[in-house]
Design brief:
Helix 24 packs antiparallel against helix 25. The termini are far apart. This protein is mostly helical. It contains 31 helices and no strands.
């Protein structure tokens, strides 16, 4: 009686195996995984099928399943004496562990792959084993050695006609060249690698990895346009690949950043949350810091301050590099003194130019709120130098906005309007609506200083619509206040902190009482008062009090 049952089971397994293999050829990953897994449950699959099933699991985001299947394939190749294929699977196990930050496992698998190839004839696997050496050199700061390793790997890939190896090596060369300052050559190689991806010349498992590396490189050189273009191209590619999970880990963080700039904040929040999950399970990894920081930034912009505070706290557990976000949160909360102290500390600690650009942008905004115009001017100048060095539109837009804000504080409304207009145009060309709206608010303030209230109202209403659509609650509220003060030039002349000081002076408070109320020093209060008297052409506290009542500022 048992023989017919075994026969039926055997036939069912063969049908599942045949259907699974056909699904593989059609790139129907979900069906392939389901059928091949069913066949494997009946009788263990041969090594080559396990290898393919491992790739499918990886594409579907089943990372632990993928690693387990690949380890079984490796053992299968070893048992059959297929040394080179066993070395290839050991390489992938090691490389996946290396990228995932599991250094010990990576070292073990890569050492095994290298040992297996001892005494073997020349083969493409030797080229693959050059990739981790290049990867480690890039991470270690030796881009020249990394470039040499990737060039060798590409040559081996060409000799054996292995498109996967050639593409991986070329994107590695591009990353290494960018780190050496040869940005144009590096970007050209990255574009070539992505063309191979979108043309279907590489395996799906390599395609996602190359894209993630290219997007990471675009972030390093602030090339938002290129990142957007290749993201759109990959989305088209993904549409042809059923059941693929294209974004994970670092890739999700970069994608969240791009979506945030494009104004797709809900999608950005979705990616940021998933990135936090990717890096927090099964146990938190250091890279979780960047994921939580991106989540915190989005919460801050939406006005969800408690959630932002918690996400910044989580980020600080894993991310040692100082960031400006918490200082910007303090500014949004109206705690200018705390914001100023935080951003001055960060500005001193962050030295690397690419990381420093965002810090300087925040620094200008915060110290201007604290009425330290000379410090803001110096930071804006340094930001301009960084923009010239990288020659990236995003940095030029950021730099122009900072310079415009400083010119406003120096009462050069006409100069500010011109520079801010350039910033607004560039942000619009980059399709970054929130950043363009921020420039628009400053343009409105410049228009008010020039007496053009109609233009100011148009700019403010336009910015307000953008903030409302995005859900940028703090900016929406601030523009609302500026619209209420449309008849007064004071809103354009004084910073928010100076308005606070003026209102408290008008209630009869002393400098000491104002300092206690706002959490700043008496020296800072005196500096604010000096700026108020100068900007409004006033000579005494009594005159300032009269001005506040006359212009309905209380």
């Amino acid at each position: 009686m048992s023989i017919p049952i075994l026969t039926r089971n055997s036939r069912a397994r063969e049908r599942a195996l045949d259907t699974g293999r056909k699904s593989l050829r059609k790139q129907q990953w979900g069906a392939a995984f389901s059928h091949l897994t069913a066949a494997d449950r009946e009788t263990p699959l041969p090594a080559e099928d396990l290898e393919e099933l491992s790739k499918v699991a990886h594409l579907m985001g089943k990372q632990s399943d993928s690693v387990d299947l690949l380890a079984r394939a490796h053992q299968g190749f070893l048992s059959r004496g297929e040394t080179q294929r066993a070395a290839r699977s050991a390489f992938w196990l090691g490389f996946i562990a290396l990228v995932g930050g599991e250094a010990a496992q990576a070292g073990g698998w890569l050492s095994r792959a290298d040992r297996l190839l001892e005494g073997e004839p020349d083969c493409v696997e030797r080229g693959y084993l050059l990739l981790p050496a290049g990867y480690r050199s890039v991470k270690g700061g030796d881009a020249a050695i990394a470039h040499h390793a990737f060039v060798q790997a590409a040559a081996i890939g060409e000799r054996f006609g292995d498109s996967d190896l050639m593409t991986l090596a070329r994107q590695g060369q591009g990353r290494a060249l960018i780190r050496q300052g040869e940005i144009a050559r590096g970007v050209s190689l990255l574009d070539e690698a992505m063309v191979a991806v979108t043309a279907g010349e590489v395996s799906p498992i390599v395609a996602g990895g190359v894209y993630c590396s290219v997007i990471e490189a675009c972030g390093e050189i602030f090339d938002l346009r290129r990142a957007q273009e290749w993201t759109t191209a990959l989305e088209r590619w993904c549409a042809s690949q059923s059941d693929v999970v294209p974004y994970r880990g670092h890739c999700r963080i970069r994608r969240a950043e791009i979506l945030q700039l494009q104004g797709s904040w809900q999608d950005a929040l979705h990616e940021a949350r998933h990135a936090c999950e990717d890096f927090s399970q099964p146990a938190p990894r250091p890279t979780a810091g960047a994921a939580f920081y991106r989540l915190a930034e989005l919460h801050r912009l939406c006005g969800k301050f408690p959630e932002a505070e918690e996400a910044y706290r989580q980020a600080s557990r894993w991310q040692r590099t100082p960031q400006s976000g918490l200082a910007q949160l303090r500014l949004a909360q109206g705690r200018v003194g705390a914001a100023e102290a935080a951003i001055r500390r960060v500005e001193k600690e962050v030295i690397e130019p690419a990381s420093r650009a965002g810090v300087l942008d925040a620094f200008v905004e915060i110290v201007l709120a604290a009425s330290d115009v000379p410090a803001a001017r110096a930071a804006a100048h340094e930001l301009s130098e960084i923009a010239r060095r990288f020659d990236a539109p995003l940095l030029h837009a950021m730099s122009a906005r900072a310079r415009g804000a400083v010119l406003l504080a120096e009462h050069d409304a006409q100069g500010a309007r011109t520079v801010l207009g350039q910033s607004w145009i560039t942000w619009c060309e980059l399709e970054a609506p929130y950043e363009a709206a921020r420039a628009g608010v400053l343009i409105a303030i410049a228009c008010r200083q020039l007496g053009d209230d109609d233009a100011a109202m148009l700019e403010l209403n336009s910015a307000r619509e953008v903030f409302q659509r995005l859900g940028a609650a703090p900016d929406f509220a601030r523009v609302g206040l500026l619209l209420q003060k449309k008849g007064s030039a004071t809103a354009g002349l004084l910073t928010d902190r100076e308005l606070q000081v003026l209102r408290l002076v008008a209630t009869g408070k002393t400098n000491r009482a104002i300092a206690g109320k706002l959490g700043i020093s008496q020296k800072t209060v005196a500096r604010h008062l000096s700026n108020i008297f100068h900007k409004l052409d006033l000579s005494s506290r009594a005159a300032a009090t009269a001005y506040a009542y006359q212009h309905q500022l209380l």
